[in-house]
Design a protein that fits this description.
Layout lengths: L1 E4 L10 E4 L9 E10 L2 H8 L15 E5 L11 E4 L14 E5 L4 E2 L6 H21 L7 E4 L5 H12 L3 E6 L2 H10 L3 E4 L5 H7 L3 E6 L5 H7 E9 L12 H7 L2 E4 L7 H12 L7 E6 L3 H10 L5 E5 L2
Helix pairs in contact: 2-3, 2-8, 5-6
Protein name: NAD(P)H quinone oxidoreductase
Keywords: NADP, Oxidoreductase
Organism: Dictyobacter vulcani
Length: about 325
Amino acid sequence: MKAIQFSHYGDPDVLQIQEVADPIPAPDEVLIEVKATTVNRLDLFQRNGSRPVEKLPFTPGLEAAGVVLQDSNNFKAGDHVLTTRASQARGGGGYASKLAVPARDLARIPANVSFEQAVAAGLTASTAWGSLFDLGNLQKGERVLIWAGSSGVGSIGIQLAKQAGAWVATTASSEERVDALKQLGADLVINHRQQSVGKVLQETGGANLVIELVSSSLQESLQAAAPGGRIILIGNLGGKEATVDTQAWRLKRVSVLGGGQLHTSVANEEKFLQLIAEKAITPLVARTLPIEQAAEAHRLLDAGELQGKIVLRYV
């Protein structure tokens, strides 16, 4: 089979297409032909060596959508499936053309959802669902602040929160992105380069739940939270450190919970795939490229100018 790998750390050009042995599935695994994967920030960090991998050569890719190749574990040949745990599959990560995936890690893709849509939702929707509902316990009528609305997790999180009947605020870095996020359904979009997010939320009633994707903005999240609010810390797009006012934190009785490497269950992943099928939510796809252009995809993501996911296709 084919796989995009790197054998040493470096710039995007270290990504090369290689011929490697097909994975042989264990009894509890299902062999799939990968049709689409995505590029995530972790892929870039692994490739450049800032997050070293255990062994080289290495096949990146956190998620994959594809077709079941042979009947196994209640899956039939031809079934369309998604895994948000491709990095743990036999055969490599999602940049491989075939994977042997534990059956428990496969979600079924509805007939009218494309591989590109499924994988673009994939891990970002799994993380958003887990942070909003599994950890955040978001309820109908509550107010939620989702940082970095243009990110993959942010954009799908806005839509999931609105589906759940929440009032949603989010942040953006430009007026162009403000308009785009309002179209996704956000009730309030704050340009964080022009306004204090914490102050604006505080003046409008505060947020019962904050999905914190930036980390360095934790003090603003504490200010934005309503008394007794919850903050779910799931990303550090702005860095690993933050300075906070512990007195205000204590007096407001705000809970801060680290989300870890967050996935929701496969059953919930099938629920958001069904929402895509019903056109209730729409994953944002910024670009779709052939897998052979993985290096270019890494450059595009690193530039930080796209809104939505970059999808890589196996033809």
